[in-house]
Amino acid sequence: MTTTSMKDVARAAGVSVGTVSNVLNRPEAVAEETRRRVQTAIAKLGYVRNDSARQLRAGRSRNVAIVVLDVANPFFTDVVRGAEPLVDSAGGVVTVCDSGEDVHREQRHLEILEEQRVLGLLITPVDGSSSERLERLTAHDIPVVLVDRGAGQHPHCSVAVDDVYGGRTAAAHLVERGHTSIAFIGGPIAIPQVGDRLAGCRAVCEEAGIHLEAFTSVSLNVAGGREAIEQMLGLPEVPTAVFCANDLVALGALQGLTMHGVKVPEECAIIGYDDIDFAAAAAVPLSSVRQPRSQLGRTAAQLLFDEIAEGEDHTHRNVVFQPELVARASTAAAL
Amino acid sequence: MTTTSMKDVARAAGVSVGTVSNVLNRPEAVAEETRRRVQTAIAKLGYVRNDSARQLRAGRSRNVAIVVLDVANPFFTDVVRGAEPLVDSAGGVVTVCDSGEDVHREQRHLEILEEQRVLGLLITPVDGSSSERLERLTAHDIPVVLVDRGAGQHPHCSVAVDDVYGGRTAAAHLVERGHTSIAFIGGPIAIPQVGDRLAGCRAVCEEAGIHLEAFTSVSLNVAGGREAIEQMLGLPEVPTAVFCANDLVALGALQGLTMHGVKVPEECAIIGYDDIDFAAAAAVPLSSVRQPRSQLGRTAAQLLFDEIAEGEDHTHRNVVFQPELVARASTAAAL
DNA sequence: GTCTTGGGTTGAAACGACTCAACACGCCTC
DNA sequence: GAGGCGTGTTGAGTCGTTTCAACCCAAGAC
Q: Which Pfam families does the record match to this protein (chains A, B) (predicted)?
């Protein structure tokens, strides 16, 4: 069965293609009786609109893409969840792309998305200096909203959580518990969130005159955390507390420490970041720094549609949320 | 800046559009010198192919859609991960859609995907009887591969894990540990996986003459598990073991039991399903039934491309994997 | 009886890329 | 010098939809 087009429907209903189009797009402009005839024809032939043709005509698709660092990270799925309803109700369709923290995959996605003439883009870019690639999109009139990325020099709207503040909060909590030697475990420092969290942490440590050891995990997941712990345990002086750049890493760290018989929190405390659902369900419930995840997504989508609506006279907005400490068992022991 | 088309490039390079098209699609057919001229023109104008136009002409997009029950479930993200490389290397693009276990959302996604003339579809359908909606797609020449769905009556290729066997395995493990009263917690029974796991469990219980109590959680996630536990604890005789339809539910159950001061596994054992990464990292490491997740995705994608390649003389294939018991602390106590 | 008005409908012109038959040109052969 | 060959290039036609000026026609105004 070869695909049926509007022409076939028109013929079957004895009207012109223009009328079929009207039935589909502005039914109120078509006479009752005609409309019905067209609709039965559509049903009988099993006609399905061809979106490519629509888009070609419209010059733009109705897809909103969300490019995340890792779909397997609950943080991002929550962000996506937050954005979806808003996009949906605006008649858009969400496309999720996973860059896997890899610049080349991100690049490939961006190229494809540009070819698809997406309506807009929410992205957590892999590195800090990706602006040139993104600006190419904005130059081609594709609005870009940065997610979880501070109000920097970039010419885009953005939503973010104050990661420096979050880093400070986590470190302050550890200091308050009496720790005097702290390790930081986090993925590529090039990822701004990681850098900021570390910066906040470092600031507090310096103020308090505390030793800080930073480990660079290969990536921000469970395996990365486990591996970093291996390194850490090789130190002559093993720190008594670990601040992980996100909860997945923290879970990995927890596994690593437990495997080596190090008691959490008695011998080593752990604090994560994001407060994903699994954090509370971990072997030792994880302390963490909570981010308003779905709100991030929702706000980002909102900014995107605002930008689309405002057109020329749009000025970029940068929304920053404050994270919040959630203390649990993994930092419960006082020294 | 209005979008530049092949025509603009052609003009700038002093050639015809046909030649530009050739440079893009069959560069070897174009003379070296011409090719270079066209390429500089492309670079200078910042030309980007218009995918809608391509697709319109081709009659088909290069998108492969994966429709899952829940993107936040690591099981599915792993399946997606498994499928991605294969789709990628076949020149396709993956689109992930989340049905959220909701028939209407699934339906909406299917409609949109059909309008987009996707290359093919990997789907874990919400209910068992969704075949009519899917057959509409196949009637329109869109190949569909069922994921995690047994070799039933359906006219599709499929990959699946033997869920009845998995259910039996889990139940047998509990019986072996001496439990004589077991609860099953699982989402809508209409979801075939849930039904099958329950069936396998029930069969073993009947053979062993053991009491089985089944609870229907609203959905297959952490919250669903927590809520079901509330119900279960209301029973006059509280079961001594719980078999959860997936690990998220099991994590929820673990939270629920812990909240009510019920010790796991001493007072109540738990076994989950899927063996997601978080299962091992839980407060009490969860026993589970492991599925070859990424292999499911990879095989599904393979079947899809096989079907596309074989065309007319394709016969559907149903691949079934065997799951595997992973015993951990949550079922460690003997009675 | 002519003139408006306006609800319905029409048909052709876009949109941008791809395809393919036709052609142009240089070179070689007989 | 006619014919054949091979390599490059062309341009018109096509995909399916939307849009919009033009048109038709019946009803109401004068």
A: LacI, Peripla_BP_3
With CA atoms as reference, report the closest residue to B287 among B240, B259, B250, B249: B250
Domain ranges of chain A: 6-49, 59-161+293-322, 163-290+325-331
Q: Which of residues 247-286 of A touch strand D (CB under 7 A)?
A: none
pLDDT of residue B223: 87
End-to-end CA distance of chain A: 74
DSSP state of B246: S
For domain A163-290+325-331, the question of CATH label 3.40.50.150 is answered with no
Q: Residue A29 has which token pair? A: 């402009």
| Chain B residues whose beta carbon lies within 8 Å of the beta carbon of residue A115 | 48-51
Do B186 and B214 meet the contact criterion of CB atoms below 8 Å apart? yes
Q: How far is CA B103 from CA A297, B64, B128, B153, B306, in A?
A: 24, 20, 11, 20, 28
Fold annotation for B60-161+293-322? Rossmann fold (3.40.50)
| Residue B334 binned pLDDT confidence (cut-offs 50, 70, 90) | low
The distance in angstroms from the start CA to the end CA of chain B is 74
Do B293 and B299 form a contact (C-beta atoms < 8 A)? no
Strands (E), chain A: 63-68, 93-98, 120-123, 144-147, 157-161, 181-186, 211-216, 241-244, 269-271, 288-290, 318-321, 324-326
Cβ neighbour number for residue B26 with a 10 Å cutoff: 9
Q: A260 by DSSP, 3-state: which? A: coil
User: pLDDT higher for B334 or A209?
Assistant: A209
Look up residue A150 and give its two tokens.
């501070």
What's the whole-number mean pLDDT along residues B314-327? 94
Q: Which residues of A touch B59 (CB under 8 A)?
A: 3
Taking CA atoms, A53 is separated from A149, B61, B77, B117, in Å, by 36, 12, 32, 11
Residue A16 CA, nucleotide D30 C1', distance (Å): 37
Q: What is the pLDDT of residue A196?
A: 93
The phi and psi torsions of B98 (rounded to 5 degrees) equal: -110, 115
Written out in words, the top-level CATH class of the domain with range A59-161+293-322 is alpha beta
The one-letter amino acid at A10? A
Taking only Cα atoms into account, the Rg of chain B, rounded to an integer number of angstroms, comes to 25
A59: left (phi over 0), alpha (psi -120 to 50) or beta: left
Yes or no: say if B329 and B265 are a contact pair by the CB < 8 Å rule: yes
In CATH, the number for domain B6-49 is 1.10.260
- State the number of CA atoms in the 13 A half-sphere of B17 facing the CB: 6
For B51 and C16, how far is CA from C1' in angstroms? 9
